[in-house]
Structures are given as structure tokens and as C-alpha cells.
Amino acid sequence: MQLDKKGICKSNHLVNRYPKVGMHKGILCGIMIHKEIMESFMDKTIISIVTILFIERSVAMYDNIQIIPYKGAKSKNPFSFRYYDKNRVIGGKTMAAHLRFAMSWWHTCNASGTDMFGGNTMDKTFGLDGIAMHKAKADFAFDLMQKLGIEFYCFHDMDIAPEGETLAESIKNLEIMTDYLLEKQNQTGIKPLWVTANMFSDKMFMAGAATSPSADVYAIAAGKVKAGIDAAIKLGAPGYVFWGGREGYDTLINTDMALESDNLGKFLTLARDYGRAKGFTGDFYIEPKPKEPTKHQYDFDVATCANFLRTYRLMDDFRMNIEANHATLAGHTFQHELRMATVNGIFGSIDANQGDMLLGWDTDQFPTNVYDTTLCMYEVIKAGGFTNGGLNFDAKARRQSNTFEDVLLSYIAGMDAFALGLLKAYEIIEDGRIDEYVAKRYASYNEGIGKDIREGNVTLESLAAYAADLKDIMPMSGRQEYLEAVLNDILFSGV
Fold first, then answer.
1. Stated pTM of the model
2. S-S: 285 plus which of 187, 226, 321, 361, CB 3.0-4.6 Å?
3. pLDDT in tens, 395-441
4. Which run of H or of E encompasses 341?
5. 373 and 327 belong to one structural domain
């Protein structure tokens, strides 16, 4: 950290981000804090010096880090990519085009390390509040994305703008901030992957939004979604997400499930119709989650959502935004949920993270399990890749990882894990042993009675007649252990 002759911090990035630091002659930019300084500045007009210094110490090191380079697998530089080479072409597309990484605004810009047993371990207010604070967060967000080479971001309405006392005031704040984000987009080329509205935090949503027993709450939720869709169109987002965090019930004793389901179906239909009428041509997404915060949520898993979309005739417009940790909370693997979405023709986008199998809640950890990222990208490739969707890091650095450098390191780890997963997924496909075995296992459906079954040329009577004299029927081995060994062989080839 450098000071000029008057003791003013020379880092424009810092001073711009922390105007209150500059106001106090930049001495607070120093790494060490002296007793005299503490005594001189400890008055009620100054934001907590300790807090400011904590922030500055972290940001000073963070600011010295420029673009994160690709250095290759042998690199020991923690601030480099070992596997993510954004311009490397695989299967006819660059890594960047395959992966379509996005930054989650709520975790990256707002998460402060708070948990139910303790307060902040990281300050992301930037010494400000209100609109000024949110603009500073935007400056940080776009700086971070540029360092990492991330081309997309995702946000809830209240992530980027302060909530007002009324819906109208909240929308006005949102418009101010989307104007600011649009300026940042025009400067950088970065844009949203998707937009959504937070309809679960405010106390009014304690019993749901589109499933609330209060029609007034339903109307406010509609207003928030309208503003969110307007923001998506304004910023050029190719997706809009619905996560029903409180669309469900805690007990059926006080719940009219039929009415709530119908109201939710009507709500999504209204949103679809409004978006299409206003020129939104992207995908609408539902993000499944079985529980937490609500005991039972109506968007339990992909299969449940698929049935819901069919019931309310929304299959043509809605896709799934699948989160890894939500899959495990539903008792499924991440791969299962991805495959289920593909089978039903509703694969869309991914919230990339991982959970802790010893914990029964959503921990939103950065994804580093290469088995999971490999099988994820295997499913994505098999599904034809992303169209409007991508890989949004719905993840936060751990509570003890509380510096801005840790935020960078977390993203590097997650991006590298998915890049390696992409490489290994293509190796699985090119190796061919797994796909070849699966084809052999179901070969009986390529001819004879199996072909007739697939083509619909059978009746229950004709199948019974065919089967009448069959003897000693035994399906071929599943070879699970062998195929798991093949996967290990591919993952660890060259070791």
C-alpha cells in the first residue's frame, strides 16, 4: 500500500470504493495500526476503525492481484488456473462456451459469514449504506468477474438494491441500480445469466408468496416478479428463475394444498404471459428444493416439478435450474437430477455447489469434488450442452475464509474443478467403454420383441403369448464395479 506525501492513499480503486477511508487522509489504508492513530481517530463520527482496517488489509492484497492467468496443471501459484483455459477448444467449443460460468451476487457480494450462532466474519458494506453501498458492491462484482474472466452473473432484486418501505419504492431503487449495472455491462461485456426476485426473506412471505393465504401478498409477489422480468429484459438476461423457498407448508393442518397449487400454477402462467408479451425470449426456470426453509416445498425435485409443469401446461416455457446441494437434500445424486431433467426435456441451467453429507442442510460450498463435476459435465454434454443456461456458483467461502483473496481462491477452485470435470467427461465419452457397455446392456430392444416394444407394436396379450414358453431368463450383468473402475482409470490416468 502506497501513500502520497500528504498521507493520502494512492489506490484510487480503494479510495473510490471506500470514500470514508479517503476522507480520513488514507492513513487508515496502513497495514499496521498504531496506538496514537487509534487515540486520534476514535470518535463517534468515524466508522469503526478496526472494521475499516480489517477490510483494507484484505482489499489491499486483493487489489494487487490482476487477471487470473492459466498456468497449467503443474502450477503452484494459488492465484492461477491449473485446468481452466477459457480459449481451449474441446468438442468444437471453447471451455468458456461449454461452462458459461456465472457469479452469484447474493453470496459473493453480500454473504458476510453470519450463521445462526455468530455474526459477521467479513464486512462487505465497503463503509457505505443505501444506494452508494450497492454501487460499491457492483464495482467490486465487476472487478472480481474481470479478474476471473467470468462473463455472467445472477442476482435477486434485493441483492443489488435496497428494499423500500413500499413496492413502488423498492422498484424505483431497482431501476436506479439496473441503470448502473447496464453501464458496467456496456464497459465490460459482462451480463446476467438469469434474474430472480427474492420472495422468501421478508416477513410478509412467511407463509409463501404465490402460495400465500393472503391475496395482498400474492399481489406484491406479482409486482416483484414483474419488476424482475423487466430487469431481465433491460439487462439482456436469457433466463428468469423461480425458487419457491416458502412455496409449501410446515403442516397440512392449516393448509389448502389444492388452492395453493392452483394459485402457484396461475402465478407462473401470468409471469410467462407477461414476459412473452414484453419480448422476453429466454427461458423461465424452476429451481427444485425439497425443504429448508419450508418443511415441504412444492418444487421438491425435478420429477415433481416436471409433473407440475405438465399439469399446468407450462412445459414449453419452463426449464430446470438444478442445484447440486438441493439434489442431495432430496435424497438424490446431482447426476440423477440432471438426467431426470434431460429425460423430461427440461434441462436448463445449474447452480454449482456442493454440500456436506454429514449435515442435513444447504451449506452452499464451492464445488471441488471432481467425481461430481465430471459426472455433471458428462450429463451436460449428453444433453447437448447449455443454451441459455450455465454454471452459476451458488456458493460462498466458508465462514473462516474471510478475506477478499479467499473469495478469489474459492472461485478459482470451483472453476478449475469444473474445467477438469469437463476434460474428464470428454475422456469418458472418447474412451467409449461406459457408453459401449450401456448400449450392450439394452441391446435386446434393438431387434425382435424388444424393437416391437419400443415402436409400440405390441399388446399385453401379444407379450404374454411371446413369454409363455420362455425359460431360464437372466439379464446380463450390470458390471457396476468394473464401470466404477473404468471411471477411476479415466480420472486418474497418468498418475
1. 0.89
2. 321
3. 999 999 999 999 999 999 999 999 999 999 999 999 999 999 999 99
4. helix 334-343
5. yes
